[in-house]
């Protein structure tokens, strides 16, 4: 039996075991398999391990998408997540080349995936509060939002959760150093049904200019001497 003789449900099941590149390659072999590739039921879950993957034409975005994960684990993450004033010219150029990649992708998700239920972002150093705000507004069914090492996220995101996260049940904001204890407390008070986790976030040193960091260090030394 040829693969194209399988019924539609079997073909969808077969495609579900393949990664995005393999699905695309198989879809190129004939028109029927291309139609299977384009079936929205195949694309309810998407996982990405690099911003480069977001630019590939090997997946579909649409209302069927329920679960999205963009987790970038690399030495390059450390470059993108340090303050701009600490970067050398090479590092700044590297970050500039993909600064809007994830944000632009998520804005596309806002417009095309209103039924999103869960979003996980890890190491996405360029994601801003405005981007998360748009997601919360456009994806009203979002139940789980997990952010890790997203260093541009501030208390504005926490405020957006209290205003637009009516369906949210899980919120993780780990290693997001520009959040404050006050912002986290507001979420606890206004959204008691949300399971909030914030490992190392408000306890980390927030972004600041070199002069401010120097002042903090001097003040710490004086306290030690006292």
Question: Topology, please?
Answer:
Blueprint: H1 8-16, H2 20-27, H3 31-37, E1 45-48, E2 67-71, H4 75-81, H5 89-97, H6 101-112, E3 118-122, H7 129-138, E4 144-148, H8 155-164, E5 170-174, H9 181-190, E6 195-197, H10 210-225
Parallel strand pairs: 1-2, 2-3, 3-4, 4-5, 5-6
Helix pairs in contact: 2-3, 6-7, 7-8, 8-9
Architecture overview:
The chain is an alpha/beta fold. The protein folds into 2 domains: 42 residues, Up-down Bundle (Monooxygenase); 181 residues, Leucine-rich repeat, LRR (right-handed beta-alpha superhelix), CATH 3.80.10. Helix 7 packs parallel to helix 8 and helix 8 runs parallel beside helix 9. About 2% of the residues have low confidence.
In a nutshell, what does this entry contain?
This protein is an alpha/beta fold.
As for the number of domains, it is: 2
Q: Please count the helical segments.
A: 10
Named CATH topology of the largest domain: Leucine-rich repeat, LRR (right-handed beta-alpha superhelix)
Rounded to an integer in angstroms, the radius of gyration calculated over CA atoms is: 21 Å
Low-confidence stretches: 209-213
Based on secondary structure, the structural category is alpha/beta
Strand order of the largest sheet: 1-2-3-4-5-6
Protein name: FXL22 protein
Keywords: Ubl conjugation pathway
Domain F-box: 9-46
Pfam family, one: F-box-like
